[in-house]
Records
---
Amino acid sequence: MQRFIAVRFLQSLLALWVMSLIVFGLARMSGNPLDVMLPIEAMPEDYERLEKHWGLDKPVTTQYIIFIKKALQGDFGESLKYQGQSAMGMVAERLPATLELAGYALFISILLALPIGVLAAVAKGTYWDTSAKIVALLGQSLPAFWLGIVLMWIFSVLLGWLPSSGRGTLSHIILPAITLGWFQVAVIMRLVRSSMLEVLDSEFVKLARVKGIPEWKVVWKHCLRNASIAPLTVFAIIAGSLLTGSVITETVFTWPGVGLLVVDAVRSRDFQVVQAVVIMFAGIFILCNLMVDVMYAYLDPRIRYQ
């Protein structure tokens, strides 16, 4: 088990390093940030002065080495747009709002998808199963930005029940959380249903029923535990998608999180903030995958020996 964890950890570090190369290169390819920072009438001397101040006059390889050295110490430099503020400090300031939104979206996804998926498998071919398939189809086909606008129009404009933007009370997070988690409801529900169908036809379930174990215990304890491996595998992808997908949701609902911050940073070519956000998202995504790999090996010991 220790060797399995060590190999996965080294692979995670390699993935994070590759991600740093990609985001560093793409940020430089987006254009010169001085074109945004300086006025139109700026002289070449002004460009040279600012390039020297921000270290943009150095070769790209030198800039990358400096970036990596500082990043290993948790320093991603100062924001080009908001001078005097550190990039990671701005990300850390916005991160609680994004985590709050992702947490509520994940809670709503599991709360809806788990019982719907189990009941759809148990009642296969019935009206309930058909309704669950329709929910899954709508969940995977409706774009998040369209769903968010429609929910905002119905519950904020027409009915006036919920606020359409901002962050504060619990009512502010309901619409963004549903918008962000709606796609994940379909994904988790379909996985739970297909996994449960396989487990329900297995021999140990028939034996459990023959021994007289109550049906609810067979379904919700024995079957659901064995059917949880496949949904657990995609849990990391779901958690990462909730964070990275929050960019669209936060923009629609003006949610003051990291997603809205990175949109502003991309528009202003703020390299430091973009790099800090992407590296942080990548780190969270890779960490979630690492944790799932370990849990997966724990649930199925054959994995660690392959």
---
Amino acid sequence: MAHNQPTPELLAEAFAKELSLREKRCPDIDSAAVLRYGQFVGSTIDCHESLPRAMDHARAHVHEVESQGGSVANGRVILADTMSRSKGRFTRAWHAPAGGVWGCMLHASTLLDISKRFVPLAVGVACCEAIREFGGGGANLRWVNDVLFGQRKVAGFLVEGHTGACYGEEYHLVGFGININNNSFPEELSPIATSLAKELGREFDLTDFTTTFLAKLAWNFGLIYYEEAQEMAGETYSGVEGTHRLLESWLSLSSTIGKRVVFGFDVMTSPQYEATVIGVDDGGGLQLQFDDGAMKTEYSGEIRYI
């Protein structure tokens, strides 16, 4: 039996707690409406003791369901206590032993293109908020969604597109790897990786953490749909001076603005240039300034702090 097992009942309790929290923190918006938009998260939760890779399992699930004439449940979450072939961006290995939160969510995307760019931000914000709620007040976000303690990475996310072969439906596969109680890392990862337990000196209930993370994921995905509805109604976004509310949350959690960075689409093997981060634009694009004063905005790729 899988160890990490959020249930519908636990998730319902977490949604109620999240709503109460947001109503106090965000009295200027309709928090119940935001959470309703996002409550597809965790519509079904598929828990495993071990999988090779959650995203591969998700693709196979889409094929199996559609081949039988069915419809894939939007928000289905796939979890595994361990994964044997997990990986991050490109071909990078992601160490996924017992003690972490490993998995992915199937999001059947009906978002407009202008809203899709916020999906990578949503998962990073949700994780950073959950870690802070469990005592990790030092957690912060590095563009676009790495969660760090100092320079060490505690969580990473990978968003991949997938089109169902039968109906042509578009999905986001939102993969997540969060180091919670796992304290040892391969030699090559030890200088750059950490876990919540390692940072705070105690272990955590994995199911409790995962349930909280999913509730915050529901809130932040809900914000994407809520703000899209605002725009389609001819209104401004609901943040300060018309800022997208999710971008506002990301900015409040991020350590990236003002940092000297190296940028690359694969920054580990092919770094492209150094620059200083001067901001993010309305769509979450990273605004960089070179030493000669020239500026550039990047919408994909990755950075490392110098």
---
Amino acid sequence: MSGCGAQQTAPEKTAPKAPVQIIMASTIGPIDAGIVGVFADEFEKKTGIIVRPVGAGTGEAIRIAQSGAADLVMLHARELEEKFVADGFGTKRYDLMYNDFIIMGPAADPAKIRGEKSAAEAFKKIAEAQALFISRGDRSGTHVKEMEIWAKAGLKPEGDWYRIFARGAEGNTVTLKHVNEQNAYTIIDRATYLRLKKELALEVLVESDEILLNFITVIPVNQQKFPAVKNTEAMKFIEWLTSKEGQSIIKNFGVDQFGAPLFFPNSPAGRELK
């Protein structure tokens, strides 16, 4: 029992906890489209966890994660993703969403590819016509897909008609604007095209071939290899992204502005959305 002369001890003040942040190395397209920002904002509101995206082509995003500087990655090149996991840098690929690539080119279409059903046949015609084709050339997911199509066509592109864009690593938005200025052919994701459509003279010439599908996944970085990785928070983010709530954001993203979604849900929960 305290006496009258006893000193009162002020309650000990504790500093407020800093919010937890996780780093996601991500392919640039979803960041440029704005959907990664929406993911981060909604997840922070729900959990208080801050998601910091670091944009890079898929190849560079993997290199960032392989240094232990990221807690998870968002990628769109299956071959590179599977190697990332097989090499022990990531733990598991989680299907997130998809859209598709399209082949764009000049309205005059000197290679005569308009309406071609096969992307590989379209590439053959471009090579035969030696019509200017501009590539990102940076081991991004877009570049990996392009090389997959050249391989299917049985061709190794080279010559004055085939150019690597020096700033390709800056992403599809910068690349497509440059290709438009050059009135050339290229392969690009549909989300980038829809966002820039009003600025472009180029036209969509080839689409809907199955090889043009563009699947995007998320992969947690392996905490056993990098103990500082925030695996608990990264997994919490992935579980939310692939839940009905996260997938509903994907289903509706872009509809108001473009009249159609920029991406489609692809997790097990997302595939069941009506």
